[in-house]
């Protein structure tokens, strides 16, 4: 069962326990929380086996979306990926800011910035990648965390980004002792790029907040592709 489906199960157990404790005070029939719990468990099971956890992800992301800071964090996080990829010459092909938007576009997870990574994939297929290519992508993957930290003084997102970096380093034969070192180094690289282009970053955040197209976002940046 997926993590999000397990979260739904946990919610149902919490609601069942809460209703058992408070039900007598509100004359709540035991049938109501039982049916609600059964429904949630049924949804969680269907989501896990039929939707591969996407339904639970969309539901939990929808709930989190009522928090304005959560929405703002997502935009700033993804704008960090977008700008650094643009600066390093990695073509951005799209972006989504919620699990629902990602699902509509056929993407998994909670959404994010998508890139044309065909060159990276072709090099990984043969188990060899240039140092420049590795540095560029590692910096892009850590850019969301760097952006969040700059704006909010900490980062709540970025687990998937770290996993991508670790997966590639593992394929290339790097030892686990290198992972954290690489993360810190490339987060610092991304931070420097963002600070050097802060006005462009803020313009990009505003454009993405308005759900501007990728092409319009590039125009807002006013900078060319890097090498």
TrEMBL record:
Keywords: Hydrolase, Membrane, Protease, Transmembrane, Transmembrane helix. InterPro entries: Peptidase_M41-like. Gene3D superfamilies: Peptidase M41. It comes from the Bacteria. SUPFAM superfamilies: FtsH protease domain-like. The chain crosses the membrane at residues 7-26. GO terms for biological process: proteolysis. GO terms for molecular function: peptidase activity. PANTHER family: ATP-DEPENDENT ZINC METALLOPROTEASE-RELATED. This is ATP-dependent Zn protease. It comes from Nostoc paludosum FACHB-159. The lineage of its organism: Bacteria, Bacillati, Cyanobacteriota, Cyanophyceae, Nostocales.
């Amino acid at each position: 069962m997926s993590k999000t489906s397990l979260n739904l199960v946990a919610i149902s157990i919490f609601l069942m326990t809460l209703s058992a404790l408070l039900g007598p005070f509100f004359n709540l029939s035991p049938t109501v929380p039982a049916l609600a719990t059964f429904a949630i468990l049924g949804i969680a099971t269907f989501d896990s086996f039929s939707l591969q956890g996407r339904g639970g992800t969309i539901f939990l992301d929808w709930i989190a979306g009522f928090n304005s800071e959560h929405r703002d964090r997502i935009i700033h996080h993804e704008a960090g990926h977008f700008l650094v990829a643009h600066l390093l010459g990695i073509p951005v092909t799209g972006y989504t800011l919620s699990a629902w938007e990602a699902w509509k576009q056929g993407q998994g997870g909670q959404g994010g910035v998508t890139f044309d990574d065909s060159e990276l994939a072709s090099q990984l297929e043969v188990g060899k990648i240039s140092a420049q290519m590795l540095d560029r992508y590692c910096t892009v993957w850590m850019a969301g965390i760097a952006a969040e930290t700059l704006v909010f003084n900490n980062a709540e997102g970025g687990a998937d980004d770290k996993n991508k970096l670790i997966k590639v380093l593992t394929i290339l034969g790097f030892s686990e002792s290198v992972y954290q070192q690489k993360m810190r180094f490339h987060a610092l690289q991304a931070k420097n790029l963002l600070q050097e282009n802060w006005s462009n970053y803020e313009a990009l955040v505003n454009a993405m907040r308005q759900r501007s197209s990728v092409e319009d976002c590039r125009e807002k940046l006013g900078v060319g592709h890097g090498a």
